[in-house]
Specification:
Helices cover 30% and strands 21% of the residues. It is of the alpha/beta class and 459 residues long. The protein folds into three domains: 237 residues, Metallo-beta-lactamase, Chain A (4-Layer Sandwich); 90 residues, 3-Layer(aba) Sandwich (Oxidized Rhodanese, domain 1), CATH 3.40.250.10; 94 residues, Oxidized Rhodanese, domain 1, CATH 3.40.250.10. The chain has a six-stranded mixed β-sheet. Helix 15 links the parallel strand 20 and strand 21. Helix 3 packs across helix 6. It is globular. The chain starts with a strand and ends in a 12-residue tail after the last helix.
Length: 459
């Protein structure tokens, strides 16, 4: 009997897996903070004997090498991948035995050229699951443009073939266990978090119900921007990252915080976006602690920029550190805890108004003279699907370089849920602009008839 435990990382839309026969265990695609995996294995009373990577990841820094060292386990990585650490090279068709587990290596190029999947069976021969990394996802497939546009078409064609190969090799009741696709930008299209099987994917997955040309065309047409920090992940993973240091950073006083802000460093306030708008240290940036923190902070921060974190508690700072080491932000220069009154050193706090979409509709009705700019910081694909008439679109990741295009006067900023708009408002205010944060779910704008003016229909 093989049991499979899922180790979710919702903030990155990823999953790692531990599969065990009750005595030994294998781990597939572990995240950077390996203490979670070690605690799970200890709680189950099993020894981790092998760690497998499906590919050199582009969206996070792996914990594979560090976990293998900590557990004394073999570390299996594609023989075709060029890496700077010792590993056990594996290739298509090999079978690895450990305890009652038998792991078959299946080449599934597409997400990367050297991508592998791992089918796990019992000694009896029954295939229990296939760990598909960024190949076959729950209702989707991994995106094929992360290695550059020159390879996108070839990789999309390979992805189509790889998914069909898995469907042909494996029984219909085999569980499909992907690493990406639960909100990850590594997914070519939205993928559900439901449990799935080869049989279920045969009747729903685009790669299995569309011919190759249609699949390639629809996959590439649906791709939008992905986080800038992805560019740093593959080099870090090829070098062999070690276990991160999660010790709390040195505490900074108000004078140090002001010095860092004035020097152009990033001082990030982790409190709620509503609390930040009500009062914050001028020049700080707002990235609310939660599942979106790593994605958007990692996307926007100039890589290597000194970073200071402000949190209400040490636990908040520690939680943010854990999220950030997963994407290779190794070092937080300093931190402060408590409240903005403590951080400001007696200086007046900055603030700006927050309004919802209903309030925006009323305000637009009262202002006939175009007295403010309405800024939509969603992705271009979101803008194309539905938008508010008269708004301008500058996706959040482009905003730091385009603030000066926005002209004078107040800027009212919105997104899909309020998170990105809060980040944008803090960036704008730090740059000296007058801002109003439009907070709330964009569906309300659609419900009250504020949105969809001039939108491109969704195909």
């Amino acid at each position: 009997m093989i049991d499979i435990d899922v180790i979710d990382t919702p903030s990155l839309g990823d999953r790692s897996y531990l599969a065990t026969d009750g005595t030994v265990a294998i781990v597939i695609d572990p995240q950077r903070d390996i203490d979670r995996v070690l605690a799970l294995a200890e709680g189950r009373g099993v020894a981790i004997t092998r760690v497998f990577e499906t590919h050199i990841h582009n969206d996070y820094v792996t914990g594979g090498l560090a976990l293998a060292k900590a557990a004394g386990a073999g570390y299996h990585v594609s023989a075709a991948d060029q890496v700077r650490f010792d590993r056990i090279p594996v290739a298509d068709g090999e079978e690895i035995a450990t305890g009652e587990l038998r792991v078959r290596v299946i080449a599934t190029p597409g997400h990367t050229f050297n991508h592998l999947s791992y089918a796990v069976r019992e000694i009896s021969g029954q295939v229990v699951a296939v760990f598909t990394g960024g190949s076959l996802l729950n209702g989707s497939t991994g995106r094929t443009d992360l290695l550059g546009p020159a390879h996108s078409v070839a990789l999309a064609r390979a992805q189509h073939g790889s998914v069909r190969r898995l469907a042909g090799l494996l029984p219909h009741d085999a569980k499909v266990c992907p690493t990406h696709g639960f909100g990850s930008f590594c997914s070519a299209s939205p993928a559900s978090g439901r449990s799935t099987t080869i049989g279920a994917e045969l009747i729903a997955n685009p790669a299995l119900i569309m011919d190759e040309d249609d699949y390639v065309a629809s996959t590439l047409a649906g791709l939008d921007a992905y986080p800038a920090y992805y560019a740093h992940m593959a080099p870090a993973n090829s070098a062999g990252p070690l276990e991160p240091d999660l010790a709390l950073p040195r505490l900074a006083d108000s004078s140090e915080l002001r010095r860092r802000i004035d020097a152009g460093e990033w001082v990030v306030d982790l409190r709620s976006r509503i609390a930040f708008a009500a009062g914050h240290v001028h020049g700080t940036l707002q990235f609310e602690l939660g599942e979106l923190l790593a994605t958007y902070l990692g996307w926007l921060i100039p890589w290597g920029m000194p970073l200071t974190l402000l949190g209400e508690t040490a636990a908040d700072v520690a939680a943010a550190q854990r999220e950030l080491v997963r994407i290779g932000i190794e070092r937080v220069e300093s931190a402060a805890t408590g409240s903005p009154e403590l951080w400001s050193g007696g200086e007046p706090l900055a603030s700006y108004p927050v309004i919802d979409f209903a309030g925006l509709a009323r305000e637009r009705g009262n202002r006939r003279d175009g007295a403010f700019t309405l800024l939509d910081v969603r992705l271009r694909s979101e803008w194309d699907a539905s938008r508010i008439g008269g708004a301008i679109n500058v996706p959040l990741h482009e905003l730091p370089g385009r603030i000066w295009e926005l002209g004078g006067g107040p800027i009212w900023v919105h997104c899909q849920s309020g998170y990105r708009a809060a980040v944008a408002a803090s960036l704008l205010e730090a740059a000296g602009r007058e801002v109003v944060h439009v907070d709330g779910d964009f569906s309300l704008a659609q419900e009250i008839g504020l949105a969809d003016e001039g939108a491109v229909p969704v195909q």
